[in-house]
Design brief:
Layout: E1 22-26, H1 33-40, E2 46-48, E3 52-53, E4 68-69, H2 72-80, E5 84-90, E6 93-98, H3 99-107, E7 111-115, H4 118-128, E8 132-138, H5 142-151, H6 157-171, E9 179-182, H7 186-201, H8 210-220
């Protein structure tokens, strides 16, 4: 809007610096977590945590983009030296989240998105509770969950049955999360997720530059 003659102009002010946060999304397979994560990564202030793994690299995968592929000895050394925020054995291979790149991102005000299960979330909570924001995504009904698994046509029927059986255990941990979103409609669920992120970014303790900002205002009064 243009200023009228004689109207005082508002001086500009620098943005208040903040510490980033760790945003964990968990859900049973088919509830929409992967799609919500992909939508959230359009935000330039959000980056995806890249895990280390001992499993072999698959065709089409890029080291450092999909995973950091390392051997078992290196993985064990990272566990022993406390370099991992969380780790787990999955079907004979190990997966874990390196601490250093996450800490580096948080320090410059970037948010790190995690795609981990309830066990991984529990480990992160034990090691970095003040930085963690955890969100569990629920399907509206069990029938809807099964329908989504069938319609995405990625798994055989026996795999879908196994995923449905696993979902019962995964959903039982919903109360361990800070927020719960019921994904009845993808756009609405994404709006809720963005609202959670916006509110958590504004928490006083995460706005590391707030004290200096307030003191500057006080000096001007």
């Amino acid at each position: 809007m243009a200023h009228s003659a004689g109207e005082p102009r508002r001086p500009g002010s620098d943005a208040i610096t903040r510490r980033g946060l760790m945003l964990v999304l968990s859900s049973p397979s088919g509830a929409g977590k992967t799609t919500l994560s992909r939508m959230l990564l359009d935000d330039p202030a959000v980056e995806l945590s890249i895990s280390v793994t001992t499993r072999p690299q698959r065709p089409g995968e890029t080291d450092g983009a999909h995973y950091h592929f390392i051997d078992r000895a290196r993985f064990d050394a990272m566990v022993d030296s406390g370099e991992l925020l969380e780790w787990a054995d999955v079907f004979g291979h190990r997966y874990g989240t390196p601490r250093a790149p996450v800490e580096k991102a948080l320090a410059v005000g970037r948010d790190v998105l995690f795609d981990i299960d309830w066990q991984g979330t529990q480990q992160v909570r034990e090691r970095a509770r003040s930085d963690l924001v955890s969100v569990f995504v629920l399907p509206p009904t069990a029938a809807e969950l099964e329908w989504r698994l069938h319609t995405r046509a990625q798994d055989a029927h026996d795999v879908i049955r196994a995923r449905m059986a696993t979902a019962a255990d995964e959903i039982s941990h919903w109360a361990e999360y800070d927020y719960v979103i019921v994904n009845r409609n993808l756009d609405h669920a994404f709006a809720q997720l963005k609202a959670i992120l916006a509110a958590e970014r504004l928490k006083r303790e995460r706005q590391t530059g707030l004290s200096d900002f307030v003191r500057a205002i006080q000096r001007q009064l």
